[in-house]
Design goal:
The complex is a heterotrimer. Chain B is an alpha/beta fold. Chain B has 12 helices and 10 strands. Chain B has 2 domains: 188 residues, 3-Layer(aba) Sandwich (D-Maltodextrin-Binding Protein, domain 2), CATH 3.40.190; 92 residues, D-Maltodextrin-Binding Protein, domain 2. In chain B, the strands form 2 sheets. Chain B has a 5-stranded mixed sheet with strand order 2-1-3-10-4, sandwiched between helices. In chain B, strands 7-6-8-5-9 form a 5-stranded mixed sheet. In chain B, α2 crosses α9. Chain B starts with a helix and ends in a 22-residue tail after the last helix. Chain C is mainly α. The radius of gyration of chain C is 23 Å and the shape is globular. The chains are: A mainly alpha, B alpha/beta, C mainly alpha. Chains in contact: A-B, A-C, B-C. Chains A and C meet through α1, α4, α5, α6 and α7 of A and α1, α2, α5, α6 and α7 of C. β2 of chain B pairs antiparallel with β1 of chain C.
Chain lengths: 254, 327, 271
């Protein structure tokens, strides 16, 4: 077990090291001027340096808060609505066409309206994250819940399980792999969207740091938030992996 | 770099090579970045190319629209466009930090005395009566750290308000500024044309102060071309600047047609445009789109004073051979 | 128990009788809610549904407007198609070969959350500001769900089926193509559906910062100018495109996985 884990880490590290190497090579051989693409070393040194200061951590904290609150709301709504639509004809009849219309809408176009309704602070950014992260979770949940075997439901009902318990004792666990896949996609989207919202209009957060640095061509400072969100992706991936292990006991493991 | 991405870039490189080989036989093309809303001369070139003897005959223009001047600075530095609209601050930032070498070849709009000046507005029933009252308030600005920030900060400091500490500054694009003010999301906000004209027509808000109080003749947007492009293609660059000069002359001479041209680009209704465009309450335009280098130098000095930039000379952006007016 | 069953059939009967009109009713309800909401708010930035609907013919009637939208759809189709071709094999390989998953998982999680808008300077440097950079952004957005759903689908394939394939003397590649791919197809298609949604979104958002033509060109232009009727009319058009593409996709899906599910459309009738 430990051997596979360390093998996983080595395998996973190879492409990351390759990226850093290619990045360095691009800079060293002059395929991109340092003013547009700073050397990776400089970015990491600046990142470590900034992690020591409270200001950067506060900005990162604001972004994380928006990310997590937005994602959590989207997950609760997405799983809830998805399950309801899968098991109830009436809900399905309403939800399905609405999802078809609303899912492909570029939510960022609604952001100015959200700003006016909810202000420039957390609420408008969280709302944008919810709007964008909701649909991948909803679609995956719906798919997962509609494709479980009817036999499972019948046998649970036959065994005397009350219908409302079937929902979270049978349907929810059976749909779990699909739901988690949806969550993983939504998590990535949340990362992108929270950044985008902060880039468009904000006074704090990593996206704000990025856009401020970009405007004055402080390229190293611009890549520090980018690297932060990358590392955050790695951490979130590990967390999801852990959550998966707990939630999917008994499913085929890879 | 992911393998898929690498593969894609390889395809891209091959396609690029094939395309550029193909275009060697065609006439020269200049890649130009633009934005909205105040580049009438370029809008004429875009929408009425038949009125320019060279466009489409001795050279072609490939237009790309950008969200503001700052992405265009990046595009210039990346070599993705040859010429683009620039603000004084964005261009200077690109030169200082981005290694961008570019020439200012023409000027689109500036603040003429008595004409429109970007201003900060408050609601008529607002308790804010003077600049000093802004202390502790939320103030909207179109671009944080943008070109208007320098003079804005100067005015606030003069009134004893520290722009860094005493106010909460939020980025409010010009398009939403009026609504943000009316909804009470901000206590004061900056206004620009055509939004100012629309808001004034509706009433209920008024001017608190304008940028012209800090400095006269502010140059808002100008045209810049990459130095390496100009040095390599002097004839092409000259033809382009000649057409900007010509376009500005036509834009000023035929207001009715300019209204139509601007409407085609901005999609703003002509009646709204008619309330300000090329009138006394509009920005100023040089009759031949000639850049006012003295005014630009003055702006660079102010940015240096406010600590936004090191001291710079406008000379590095000046190329006597390729600058409007070219007849 | 019988009461519950009776309820179920009653719901089912109502469900069937309103079923053909449900999409229409839902859309009308949405428009009505929007109309009332906009009237209550009374701000310029949120036009009423009627105002927005009135602006739709202006966009579609204008030849350049239509050309713009078609330009976007063309980029979307290319991005979508290339994403499908790349991500299904990758996802399936990740799902069946643990080493491949270990290799790609971290790199995907590191690269995907980076907002492409922030990488524009570098993207412009290598790919310019034209179709290529926009198609790349669409490609990246679409690969995300398809890779992960293919991954999940391949992982869930029963070992027994793989073994019997191996016992029949199939090579690893044959097992992938003839056992894993069909078995994972429903899940892959679920990923494609999310991919389609993301393709429509990025088709527009890729035109936010630099643009020559496209649906996003119209939308962001209008947004910059505060022409909110046009903004929301464009949103309506994109929503309509969503319905059309989704319906087309659903047909395709049914044709492809007709063998696997009749149950997809039988909601669990115990509510």
């Amino acid at each position: 077990m430990r051997a596979t884990l360390s093998r996983d880490i080595v395998l996973g590290a190879i492409p990351l090291i390759l990226i850093a190497a290619v990045w360095q090579a691009i800079v060293s051989f002059g395929y991109a001027p340092a003013a547009l693409l700073p050397p990776p070393g400089a970015v990491f040194v600046r990142l470590v340096h900034q992690l020591g200061g409270t200001d950067f951590l506060a900005q990162g904290g604001a972004t994380l808060l928006r990310l997590f609150v937005g994602f959590t709301i989207a997950a609760v709504l997405g799983i809830g609505i998805g399950l309801m639509a899968a098991v109830h004809r009436g809900v399905d009849a309403v939800v399905r066409p609405l999802v078809r219309v609303l899912a492909p809408v570029p939510k960022v176009a609604l952001y100015p309206a959200l700003l006016l309704l909810l202000g420039f602070d957390h609420a408008s950014k969280i709302a944008l994250v919810v709007a964008d992260a909701l649909f991948p979770i909803l679609l995956s949940t719906y798919y997962g819940a509609t494709t479980i075997e009817q036999k499972l439901v019948w046998s649970a009902l036959a065994a005397g399980t009350p219908p409302h318990q079937v929902l979270y004792k049978v349907v929810l666990p059976a749909a779990m792999p699909s739901i988690l896949t949806g969550c993983r996609i939504a998590l990535v989207i949340s990362c992108i969207v929270v950044f985008l919202a902060e880039m468009i209009s904000s006074t704090d957060g990593l996206g704000y740091l990025l856009v401020r640095a970009a405007r004055s061509f402080q390229t190293v400072d611009m890549f520090v938030p980018l690297i932060s969100i990358s590392l955050l992706g790695l951490i979130l991936n590990a967390l999801l992996y852990g959550a998966r292990k707990v939630l999917l006991r008994g499913f085929p493991e890879v | 770099m992911r393998p898929t991405m690498k593969r894609l870039m390889l395809i891209a490189a091959t396609a690029g090579a094939v395309l550029s080989a193909g275009s060697a036989f065609a006439i020269d093309t200049i890649r130009v970045g633009f934005t909205i809303p105040a580049e009438e001369s370029k809008y004429w070139m875009m929408k009425r190319p038949e009125r320019f003897p060279d466009i489409g005959k001795t050279y072609n223009i490939e237009w790309t629209q950008f969200q503001g001047t700052s992405p265009m600075t990046q595009a210039l530095a990346a070599g993705a466009v040859d010429c683009a609209t620039q603000g004084v601050l964005s261009l200077a930032n690109g030169a200082v930090n981005g290694g961008l070498k570019a020439y200012i070849v023409a000027q689109h709009v500036y603040e003429k005395p008595g004409g429109f000046s970007v201003y900060w507005a408050v609601k008529d029933d607002s308790p804010i009566k003077t600049v000093a009252d802004l202390k502790g308030k939320t103030v909207g600005i179109s671009v944080l750290g943008g070109g208007t920030y320098g003079p804005f900060a100067m005015i606030l400091r003069k009134a004893g308000v520290d722009p860094e500490k005493d106010i909460k500054l939020v980025e409010t694009g010009f398009a939403v500024s009026e609504d943000a003010l009316r909804q009470g999301r901000v206590d004061a906000v900056n206004m620009n044309q055509p939004f100012a004209a629309r808001a004034e027509a509706k009433g209920g808000i008024h001017k608190l102060f304008s940028l012209s109080e800090a400095m006269p003749n502010i140059v808002h947007i100008l045209e810049a071309c990459r130095a390496d492009f100009v040095d390599k293609n002097p004839a092409l660059a000259k033809a382009y600047v000649r057409d900007i000069t010509h376009g500005m002359e036509m834009a000023l001479a035929d207001r009715a047609e300019t209204l139509k041209v601007v409407n085609e680009v901005l999609k703003a209704p002509i009646p709204v445009l008619d309330t300000y465009l090329l009138k006394d309450n509009d920005f100023g335009r040089d009759p031949k789109a000639a850049p006012n280098f003295d005014a630009i130098q003055l702006m660079l000095d102010i940015y240096a004073e406010t600590g936004m930039l090191p001291k710079l000379s406008v000379r590095q952006f000046y190329n006597p051979n390729v600058v409007a007016p070219i007849e | 128990m019988s009461a519950v069953a009776g309820d179920g059939t009653a719901t089912a009967r109502i469900g069937i009788s309103i079923a053909p009109f449900a999409p229409l009713l839902a859309c009308l309800g949405l428009l009505a809610a929007w109309q009332i909401g906009a009237l209550l708010l009374g701000t310029d930035s949120i036009p009423t549904a009627l105002d927005a609907l009135r602006a739709v013919p202006d966009i579609l009637g204008d030849r350049s407007g239509l050309a713009n939208i078609l330009d976007s759809i063309r980029r979307m189709a290319i991005g979508l198609a290339s994403a499908v071709v790349v991500s299904i094999p990758l996802g399936l390989a990740m799902g069946r070969v643990p080493a491949v998953a270990s290799f790609f998982n971290p790199i995907l999680m590191v690269t995907y959350p980076v907002p492409k808008a922030a990488l524009m300077p570098v993207i412009m440097l290598w790919l310019g500001v034209g179709d290529l950079s926009k198609t790349l952004v669409i490609f990246l957005a679409v690969t995300l769900p398809i890779i992960y759903h293919s991954f999940e689908g391949a992982k869930a394939v029963e070992e027994k089926m793989i073994w019997s394939g191996a016992a029949m003397g199939m090579s690893r590649l044959q097992i992938m193509a003839r056992i894993v791919l069909p078995a994972a197809l429903p899940e892959i298609l679920a990923g494609c559906r999310t991919g389609l949604v993301l393709a429509l979104i990025t088709m527009v958002t890729s035109e936010m910062i630099a643009r020559k033509s496209g649906a996003g060109n119209i939308l962001f232009n209008a947004l910059d100018m505060g022409q909110y009727d046009t903004v929301f009319a464009m949103i309506i058009i994109i929503g309509a495109l969503g319905i059309i593409f989704d319906a087309a996709f659903d047909r395709l899906r049914r044709a492809l996985v007709a063998w696997s599910d009749t149950r997809q459309d039988i909601p669990l009738s115990f509510s």
